[in-house]
Amino acid sequence: MTPVNDSAHGAAASIPTIALHDGTTIPQLGFGTLALPGDAGGTAAGDEETARVVARAIGAGYRHIDSAQGYLTEVGIGRAIAASGLPRGDFYVTTKLANDNHRPDDVRRTFEQSLKRLGVPYVDLFLMHWPLPTRYDGDYVSTWKAMTELVAEGRLRSVGVSNFQPDHLERIIDATGVVPVINQVELHPQFANTAVREACERHGIAIEAWSPLAQGRYLDDPAINEIAAAHGRTPAQVILRWHIEQGNIVFPKSAHPERMAANLAVFDFALTDAEREAITALDRGEDGRGGPNPDTFDWIPDPS
Known about the structure:
Number of strands: 10
Helix content: 25-40%
Shape: globular
Order of helices and strands: HEEEHEHEHEHEHEHEHHEHH
Radius of gyration: 19 Å
Largest sheet: 8 strands, parallel
Distance between the termini: 37 Å
């Protein structure tokens, strides 16, 4: 069993929650697990590495864990949660539907597999990872409908989407009447993703920002470093604080204990209006996007 000390409980308690429109709440800061096991993903060694790092994150105070079927981290996450000795209710666990599982029968089958890999009786949040509008004859509505049906069965608390553009959101809402609780999208100071943010605000959809630090691409930005120096903080902490004050849900990833702790230490200072505006002004529109465009992204794993 991995010991969880009093300081970890304190760190977890300091993280605010965001109310979702279905009556549930989500911790505003969590721990990301994309590429955590590296090239060993899906192997026994990769599961062990994931379990080790996630256990370290839990020990630091993280209770919101973000995963995906495609990350190959579910087994390791489940082991770390079980080893923590903490009750299941202390954790908020997200996983996402893989791109090769969009057919309705596959939604149900692979959700069951995710539960088994995670070793938990329920998942807090299940997201459609990508809309894939050029795949499956353009039908992501039936995928969404199948996902929403899982909530009534009691083993899924909330359902949402990831990487959905405004027209993707409108289509599934119009077709099913079910509004996602969350849209997890690329968002950081150089890519404000304004149209998506405005669409989410109209529908009461909370925003999760993946790659909140843009993989460190602008940690040396002069404006951010000036603000960091003024507060005695790191550039990463300033950017995470900007996200928090924007109301974004974030889940930075690091395998290093000191960075895990630093990423949690963003709730005891505040940016001024001028500082917040200076960071927001770094937006480069579409030129700031670092990941794929959801309108054209169509990657599906090779079944071999």
